[in-house]
Amino acid sequence: MNWLIEEQEGIVILKMSSNKLNLMNDAFFKDLNYAFDTLDKEYANKPVVLTSVGNVFSAGLDLNQCYEIFAGGNTDEVLSWFNQFRDSMLRVFNFNRPIVAALNGHAIAGGLILALCCDTRYAVSTNAKFGLNEVTIGFPLPSVFAEIIKYALGARRSEEILFNGMLYNPDDCIKLGIFHDITDHNNLIDMSVAYAGQFNSDNMYSYSIAKKSLRAEANHRIEAYCNDIDKDVPRMFTSDKTKSNLKLILENLKERK
What is the model's pLDDT at position 57? Predict the structure, then answer.
């Protein structure tokens, strides 16, 4: 596993470090699941702060890998990739303890969805952009992730953020309710640890019960409706339009380098 696990004042700090931008690919999903297996086995009943090494929280999906898989046209391979993505995000969303996202830098698309899976979100106050730009770049958003976003932000705010596809600065994110607070980089982990420190062995069980109850409706919709809708994911991702849009994005990114 490439991720780092540390403890501070009884709080587990989980630092993502799968690659420089924490792009979500097979290795990232493997690291995430190994890390959460370790949390379950070795750090039971302790709150978690999720952050990253470096100055990027996560730039979202590894689009090079996505294009390679989608262009291949193998629907079984596309479905296997999607299930990794889906199951990894849901594992964080349904983590049965307090989990605080400490966004120490940019979080774009899937990277921000990962943060929205967490219970509480703190972020740096400068030099970072955050947004959900899937719709505006022509990348189909699976229903399961729309449900997670809606749970975290509410339906109308989710539509606003998804449909305009803007990348927001930290102050904007506070106004939109994406983050609970922002602070300078040096104070980010301390703020996150201080919040997580409210929860301990005395109230962890009651926290987990309340969290499960509060997310029960969202999880019911995911199982009852989203899973059926998302059966169409392989066709969506292997469509000529999706592949064309993705190819154009990759070409533009290459030109910027």
Answer: 98
